[in-house]
Design a protein that fits this description.
Nucleotidyltransferase, domain 5, 2 domains, five-stranded mixed β-sheet, globular
């Protein structure tokens, strides 16, 4: 006879749904990892089956993970997605995995599982993880930023996600800072994402030079003294300072934590911070701008913690 009894704290299952991979993690009641699994995200861009394939893959992964929870114990489920849930319609919006857009992803999974789940933007999950267990642990108000191909943000207050009235709090990447800037996929011009994401800087370099280089290659060129790379990279640092300095002036967080591939550029924490101080509305800002500690594990760990 199984004598296992429910514990005060539940087991926690997290799912991080990304454009290239889906990862799951199961945490025990003390927050320790009991196992993780990664698999490729089914892709058929603009095809009619992409959504169904993603939904089915996530459902299968959740069922497999739930099978490892001891009998008699409760388990929450949290899922981080590359978009948000429209508070009015319950459907996915603003997702760069476009096959999800317009679908009731949360409702469909809850119906199949017969139980509630919590779903949040992946930047929110990153922020929560770094605030609870990572670089920003111990800070009250944390703004988390994912700088990669795109740019996203999230807000954590006292170890909990602040989602806002429309569930879009922290969507700093689509704040328009340059009305004459490049057109963003969201329909506006000069969004933060077009200025300081890896994709945005690479596009800027192409428009200036006619050459295709990644931000990583542009950064190396800057370090080697290439004049074209230097010009674009210095503009990137200036834009980083203007965008983040303005954010700090508005929100005044206790800490900012950076994640994503672009966050690994060392100059952001020296020259970039100098530019932030230049643009923030305070003579001597002391806001810590921190590099992530949890790496690409932050998303799935944060997803596990959002479950209710």
């Amino acid at each position: 006879m199984d004598k296992a009894m429910p514990t005060k704290h539940p087991y926690r299952l997290g799912v991080d749904l990304g454009g290239t991979k889906i990862e799951t993690i199961l945490l025990d009641p003390e927050g320790g990892s009991l196992g993780r699994k990664r698999t490729a995200t089914p892709r058929d861009p603009d095809g009619p089956t992409e959504y169904a394939r993603i939904r089915d893959r996530v459902h299968t992964l959740i069922e497999a993970a739930l099978g490892k929870v001891p009998h008699g114990h409760t388990c929450t489920i949290g899922i981080g997605i590359p978009g948000t849930i429209n508070a009015r319609t319950g459907r996915v919006q603003n997702a760069n995995t476009t096959g999800l857009i317009g679908h009731p992803f949360q409702h469909d999974l809850e119906t199949r599982l017969g139980r509630p789940i919590t779903m949040e933007n992946d930047a929110n999950c990153f922020t929560l993880a770094e605030a609870r267990q990572g670089a920003a642990k111990g800070y009250e108000l944390v703004f988390g930023i994912i700088l990669g191909t795109g740019c996203g943000g999230g807000i954590s207050i006292n170890g909990k996600i602040h989602s806002g009235r429309h569930l879009i709090a922290g969507e700093w990447g689509h704040f328009s800072v340059d009305p004459e800037g490049a057109r963003c996929y969201c329909g506006n011009r000069g969004c933060v994402e077009t200025k300081i994401s890896g994709g945005g800087v690479a596009q800027s370099f192409f428009e200036r030079t006619g050459q295709r280089l990644t931000l990583e290659e542009i950064t190396e060129g800057y370090r080697q003294g290439d004049p074209q790379c230097r010009s674009v990279f210095e503009q990137f640092l200036d834009d980083f300072g203007r965008c983040l300095g303005g954010l700090i002036s508005v929100l005044d967080p206790d800490a900012v934590v950076l994640g994503g591939g672009v966050s690994n550029i060392d100059e952001l924490y020296t020259l970039g911070v100098e530019q932030v101080r230049r643009y923030a509305f305070h003579e001597r800002i002391q806001t810590p701008i921190l590099k992530h500690q949890l790496g690409d594990s932050a998303g799935v760990i944060g997803a596990a913690w959002i479950g209710k």
